[in-house]
């Protein structure tokens, strides 16, 4: 099996039609003092206004862990210790399919929004009170069970 530089497996999507866009996303689940770090999607983007775990789309040839590190630096001005890919889900929206990989991460420093997004630290039980994208629903159930 081919390996990317930091040991991530190359992911290939099978069975997608020619018009289906497949987006590979890596997201950081950051828990500190019993609270999770979440950010809000900005206006004018897909799923605007929804809360999400920080991260984003992988660039061509970029590993999942490199993607998380880049996104956290760009969006929150922090470096991260990226743990294991502990939860993966594929969700089909009308215009795209999203393959979401969630990693437990620890950040160094204090996150500070860099692109105007809202950011919150929320308790586990508060996760169900926020609107997350449909692709995150199963993860939210897992996290709220403890």
Helical content, roughly?
10-25%
- What does the overall shape look like? globular
- How many runs of DSSP E, i.e. beta strands? 7
CATH class: Alpha Beta
Question: Which ranges are low-confidence, i.e. pLDDT below 50, for 5 or more consecutive residues?
Answer: 1-16
Question: How many structural domains in the coordinates?
Answer: 1
Task: State the assembly state of the protein chains.
Answer: single chain
The helix count comes to 2
Task: Report the average pLDDT across residues.
Answer: 87
The CATH architecture is: Alpha-Beta Complex
CATH topology: Nucleoside Triphosphate Pyrophosphohydrolase
The value of Rg in angstroms is 15 Å
Order of helices and strands: EEEEHEEEH
**Cα-to-Cα separation, first versus last residue:** 35 Å
Q: Which structural class matches the secondary elements?
A: mainly beta
CATH superfamily: Nucleoside Triphosphate Pyrophosphohydrolase
Largest sheet descriptor:
7 strands, mixed
Work out the strand percent: 35-45%
